[in-house]
Design goal:
This protein is mostly helical and about 220 residues long. It has eight helices and no strands. Helices cover about 70% and strands about 0% of the residues. Helix 1 packs across helix 6, helix 4 runs antiparallel to helix 7 and helix 6 packs across helix 8.
Length: about 220
């Protein structure tokens, strides 16, 4: 639980109760988009491996992270298959794309910002797993709680790599702390502002539009 406490201190807000309600009302989409998130997280790590071939610590940590995220993807789709939930294409939430809008174009700023965004996303994922777990059925609760340790480590790895990159290559004109404030403030806005459709990283849905579908988990 100490990891979760640190992550709660790191993030600027807690997941709203309205998002939890939407997740419980839409269990199929919760799992479908969770699978998508694991797949995208692995892809991000692999892209970093291709882009920054001279950073051995980054290569090792991103290789491990990609393997873990793909394993999580396999676990999610196994649960979906057992529950008769088909895996299908769904539109992405605004969350990751909006978080990446302030990325700097020039290096080393681009690397530092990309790593900070990775840390923020992993921290939020961990916080959401912890928030959701008490409301889920026994199988999903155990699964989501099992993810907390790795997600917390991913957040720490991304943040440590950002700080190390700034120390080795320069900060690109702004400190890591200043960039963190930029991305964390933006992330808070995305988490608390109402969204148009439910996704794993969406904001809460307006009460009148919250899905009234099957109650899960």
């Amino acid at each position: 639980m100490s990891d979760i406490a640190a992550i709660k201190r790191f993030l600027r807000c807690e997941t709203p109760d309205a998002w939890i309600s939407a997740a419980l009302a839409n269990p199929a989409m919760l799992l479908i988009d969770h699978a998508n998130c694991e797949k995208k997280a692995a892809s991000t790590a692999i892209n970093l491996i291709y882009r920054y071939v001279d950073n051995f610590e980054l290569l090792n940590k991103m290789s491990r992270l990609a393997r873990e995220e793909l394993r999580h993807f396999e676990q999610v789709i196994a649960i979906m298959r057992a529950r008769g939930i088909p895996y299908r294409q769904v539109s992405a939430s605004r969350y990751a794309a909006r978080l990446r809008e302030p990325l700097r174009a020039a290096e080393p700023g681009r690397l530092i910002d990309t790593l900070i965004v990775g840390a923020v996303i992993e921290a939020r994922s961990c916080e959401r797993f912890a928030r959701l777990a008490p409301h889920l059925d026994e199988e999903l609760q155990a699964f989501y709680l099992s993810l907390l340790k790795s997600e917390a480590r991913h957040y720490r790895d991304y943040l440590a790599l950002a700080q190390k990159a700034a120390a080795e290559y320069g900060s690109g004109g702004e400190s890591v702390e200043a960039r963190l404030e930029t991305f964390l403030d933006l992330e808070r806005q995305l988490i608390v502002q109402a969204d148009t459709e439910f996704r794993f990283h969406s904001g809460p849905l307006p009460q009148a539009e919250a899905p009234a579908a099957e109650r899960c988990c």
